[in-house]
Design goal:
With 311 residues, the chain is an alpha/beta fold. It is built from ten helices and 13 strands. The strands form three sheets. Strands 3, 4, 5, 6, 7, 10, 11, 12 and 13 form a nine-stranded mixed β-sheet that branches. The chain has a two-stranded antiparallel ribbon with strand order 1-2. α5 links the parallel β3 and β4. α1 packs across α2 and α2 crosses α3. The radius of gyration is 22 Å and the shape is elongated. This is HTH-type transcriptional regulator CynR. GO terms for molecular function: DNA binding; DNA-binding transcription factor activity.
Length: 311
């Protein structure tokens, strides 16, 4: 019971929220609160300062959290050694992904993983890119999924996918009758953009400037889902990794336009803490991501094993 309560405490400490920890563990918030209270009564100290928002750890709480993280890391290593003697994979995998990775695509990976490893709890959170790296750096996520991944310092990148970038327009747009266009053909168009803090926005802006193309950014969003909705209603054109709009393109809600004379892709990578031992469950999730789920997809290619750090 105390070990379980310590695990719950670590979840609350990571999330800085009782409700978020409850959702992550599939428990009620009162049950989470009761577990923390039992742990505090056993230790005779207050671990969490509940008067602040978000919740903050007390000095004893910080010390206990640090010790528990090291304890559970060693425990996962022990579990892996034992599991390697059998075919059974158990445990938990914590994954932090950027919003624009594509909700539909990730749902397919998650479904396959849960079917294949029913004894593993997979926790997937969608976050801003900076938060993904923060979770990985602080060992609050085993794996991160990001675009234009960094590889250096405490972060190690496993190359994953290269997604073709193209123009998307509403079916009624003047360009919708075309299949291929030059980038210059969107010069002066109303444009639905990513927010300026995102790396993909910086890459798009750089490519537009390089090709002397100017657009009128009428809306900015930090996730692809909102961008697609805005383009659908005719708010403007956009530039997106085409696989992320496949559902809307197949349904006729958006039209994809391939860019001629321009080889343009968005790299996706799986990031982890350098020298961190991945559990058997986390390693299996990486292996599943690297399987060719879309082998016949002309818009997605397996990333080269070695990628220049400039990406």
């Amino acid at each position: 019971m105390l070990l379980r309560n310590a695990e719950i405490f670590c979840d609350v400490a990571n999330c800085r929220s009782f409700s978020k920890a409850a959702a992550a563990r599939g428990m009620s918030q009162p049950a989470i609160s009761q577990a923390i209270q039992q742990l505090e009564e056993h230790l005779g100290v207050t671990l969490i300062d509940r008067s602040q928002r978000p919740l903050q750890l007390t000095p004893p709480g910080e010390a206990y959290f640090d010790g528990c993280r090291r304890l559970f890391s060693d425990y996962r290593l022990l579990e892996d050694r034992v599991q390697n003697l059998s075919a059974k994979v158990t445990g938990r995998v914590r994954v932090a992904a950027i919003y624009s990775v594509g909700l539909l695509q990730m749902a397919e990976y998650v479904s396959r993983f849960e079917d294949r490893y029913p004894d593993v709890v997979l926790q997937l959170d969608y976050l801003h890119p900076d938060q993904v790296y923060e979770r990985v750096n602080q060992d609050e996520a085993d794996l991160g999924i990001v675009s234009f991944p960094r590889d250096g310092g405490d972060i190690e990148c496993i190359p994953w996918l290269d997604q073709v970038i193209g123009v998307v327009v509403a079916p009624q747009h003047r360009l919708a009758a075309k299949t291929d266009i030059a980038l210059a053909e969107i010069d002066g168009e109303d444009f639905v953009a990513f927010t300026q803090d995102l790396r993909i926005r910086k890459e798009i802006d750089r490519t537009l400037r390089k090709n002397k193309v100017s657009v009128n950014a009428v809306h900015q969003f930090d996730n692809i889902e909102n961008i697609k909705r805005a383009v659908e209603i005719g708010a403007g054109v956009s530039i997106l990794p085409l696989p992320t709009a496949r559902r809307e393109i197949d349904a006729g809600m958006l039209k994809a336009l391939h860019l001629t004379g321009l080889k343009w892709h968005r790299p996706l990578g799986i990031v982890k803490r350098r020298h961190k031992h991945l559990s058997a469950a986390a390693s299996r999730f990486v292996e599943l991501l690297q399987e060719a789920l879309g082998a016949d997809d002309p818009w997605t290619k397996r990333a080269p094993a070695e990628r220049a750090k400039a990406d």
